[in-house]
Design goal:
mainly alpha; rod-shaped; 0% strand; 3 helices
Amino acid sequence: MRIARNNRGFTLIEMAIVLIIIGIILGAVVKGKDLIRSGEQKKVLMNPRTIPLTSSTSSKKPVLHHRLQTQVMPASTDIRTAKEGLMTSR
């Protein structure tokens, strides 16, 4: 006597293996994109023609401009003009 088996579905192990394979492939694709992007950035930064472009569009430029506008600078850096004789020149 033969027992009829219905083999139309996937087992839990087969589904787990497929999900693991998909995860590995997706991880490799994401890592590959990151490597490509970092390589492109290095190529742009190493190109001498792009150096003025990258330095003029730096995100630190507004901060430096603000600092130059608001920073208190001494009236003189000459040691001979120091007040109260705290510093003397030879």
